[in-house]
Amino acid sequence: MAFLKHSVSIRIFRSGMFFCLIILLFCVNLFSTQNVAYFEIPHQKDPKTVAIIGAGAGGSSAAYWISEAFANSSASVKTTVYEQLPQVGGRALVYNYTRDNTQIFVELGASLFIDANYHMTNSAKKFGLEFINYGEELPNAKVGIWDGNQFVFEQTSSSYWDISKLIWKYGWAPIKVQRLVKFIVSKYLKTYEFKEPFTSVNLEAERLQLDLERKFTAQYYFSELKNINQLYLQHLVEPMSRVNYGQNLCEIHALGAFISLAPTGAKSIKGGNYRLFEKFIEHSGATLKLDTKVVKITKLSTINGVEESVKYKVQTKDGSTEIFDAIIMAAPIKFSGIEFENIYLEMKEIPYVTLHVTFVTGRLNPSYFNRTKVEDFPNQILTTNSGKTEFLSLAAKIILENGETLNKIFSHEKMSDEIYRSVLVLKFANNKTTLFHHTFCDVKIPAIT
Q1: HEC string of 331-347?
Q2: How far apart are CA 382 and CA 378, in angstroms?
Q3: How far apart are CA 299 and CA 315, in angstroms?
Q4: Residue ending a domain, choose from 321, 350, 379
Q5: Does residue 270 sit in helix, strand or coil?
Q6: Digit-coded pLDDT (tens) for 95-127
Q7: Domain carrying residue 308
Q8: CB-side exposure of 178: number of CA atoms within 13 Å?
Q9: Among 350, 368, 394, residue at a domain's last position
Q10: Where does the record place the Prenylcysteine lyase domain (predicted)?
Q11: What pTM did the predictor assign?
């Protein structure tokens, strides 16, 4: 058996901001063309300059919406985007999987967004990018919920039968949760209607009347405040927060849990979601500096002995410097490794969880799941918080031409080769099975607390 190592370890920092559904919504409120009055700059001889640190979802969209906000203004803004990695996209990473002359692009992180994320959806359409609907590449996929001993729920080909099973087992909990999700999402979408900017995610949640959902853990909110069947929370709700955010209901706030339960119209960009962020920067006209590590930012009050309005000097690893009127930090400050001079930053300690994302070719081993045959076997497996599961989720992504299945596994711990061999049948007749398992260093993505 040949092992070609390649996977990703993703460290999640806990904050109130989560990818796509929030970061783009909130950035856009600041830089929407409807809000130009808040950012009008008196006519000046030279353009104002803005440095954006980070070319992920936040940085790329900020560059784009700044350019849109000032497109028809007498003022001009020149933007520079610094990115320490060789590509745009942040955690929207794509691995180019090539096997037997077959080339497949698979998302490592930030792999989906939903219809309700209007800025992602509308911008992709504007830029002429093609969508892939969730499940399109594997139309016969079936979901199963594994608790370490048995499947507590298995999807069938009949949605009516599935709904009947859920109601029989969990009472009206599925319907109550569905109604709650619709209600919360409708409140959340009002953020698109606001013209005024805001200063924090917490204040925006209050403005949307979602402060209750933000303040309490999902476990307390659903069980104590909404009286939802505990078994349903354990079997159906928690697996969704685990696969989406690597967090259990006692760790995630209720608003985050609602987002994980609202996958209607889930989709991705063909070729990788990072392509949208590339388009944001391309259409913004910003100067993009890839492979450029910012090491120091200094607040200045004088330049060459002449008193000026506040400006900032950005220094990169190669020693070069540039002066800007404003800085946007679109990367986690605490983990950026940037030295700040004459700038007071009050940063609280941010805890981490670690998420391993592994791609492996092979088919599910029925005996691991206490089955005797693989027919009609779930190939999208989520897990409960039973303490008996060795992974968060295991999902077949695509069937390759040679009959192998490319699987994507999320786990908190790095899984051993022995576990892979027990979960999957890795060896095929052609003896070309490949296990990808390599760790990339510290890609920061927001989790929810």
Answers
A1: CCHHHCCCEEECCCCCC
A2: 10
A3: 12
A4: 350
A5: coil
A6: 777 766 667 778 887 888 888 888 999 999 999
A7: 17-134+265-350
A8: 8
A9: 350
A10: 153-424
A11: 0.82
